[in-house]
Amino acid sequence: MSSKEDRERLGKGTHAVWAGEEERLPWGATCMPVVHSVTYSYDDLDQWFEVATGVRQGYIYSRNTNPTVAAFEEKMRALEGADDATSFATGMAAISNTLYTLLSDGDRVVSVKDSYGGTLKVFTEFLPRHGVEVMLCETEDHDAIEAEVRKGCSVLYLETPTNPTMKILDLARLAEVGHEVGATVVVDNTFNTPINQSPLELGADLVLYSATKYLNGHSDAMGGVAIGAPSLVRRVFHFREINGATLHPNTAYLLLRGLKTLELRMQRHNENAMRLARHLVEHPKADVVNYPGLPGHRYHEVAARQMRGFGGMLSFSLKGGFDAVRRFLPKLRFAHRAASLGSVGTLVGAPGTTSHVEVPIAEREAAGIPEGLVRVSVGIENADDLIADFDQALDAV
Known about the structure:
alpha/beta, 12 strands
């Protein structure tokens, strides 16, 4: 391939297949190998010193850097159109390491109440122990979020669509006010992937992913990644390399393999979720259907402006509450009743057993997450089969 500038102009599907691997393929291999070596040898001590001090690129110790892991990071950097990326053992490691890197005693972080349950635990249980002030705003009140940011904010942390209520935050609007006060704007883009949304182009400083989800796509590998400017990414990398939440090279290999079909998979996820959401809206046993692609969604216009596709995630409430959910879920044939999301196979569950298992019932209800809510990660199966399966399961409610 030609110059770096030419490579950067390539489409996301091409980056998903090629980025990060060309310069690391040995012996004429067409597939990135798994490099298991823990340490790397240098005969030239001057070169070793330059690599160890960051003057020259290379590998010293796999807790810090590893060729297979570096290929994954480079692929994600290219997909996001960013300047740097660093990886982690899990998505929560990406989130927690980033927050602990950017926040210190006396700092203030502003976010929303509808974040992922694990993220909320970091906000409500762990950061306050270290003297960090946490302000969680009502997700749909952008004016209130802006007001809190203007009171003082070191980090503005956003997640859109929210999990599992599928609320939409206007990233460009909120990033602008965050930068007015000098805040670092961090966006969890796990639901969207780089295929559906580009937070950095909308004003974010760092974008985070649980790579376990759509980036992998097959529910067989866990990982996380932070992407953005080198000035921020290098700080997060340093925290991670010392604290040790390192992505394993075997996992990096699986993530690289999954990424090659990311664009194709997301197209099918988008199509299937839209069809299922439209069908559920008309179903008499479904109450509220949460999907930003529906014209009736409160923030559909914002979603249409900042997203290229509306994603494979939706949620809906069943009339009859949790008893209805208990009858409905076991009847599904083409869905795993399991936590996580973003797999080629459809995954379903209640927030109390998936996204918000750590959050008490009262807090879930206060956040607008009823016990009758069903979260659906719509897979890439045939859409007609999925719809028929949901219909027969709803007949049992």
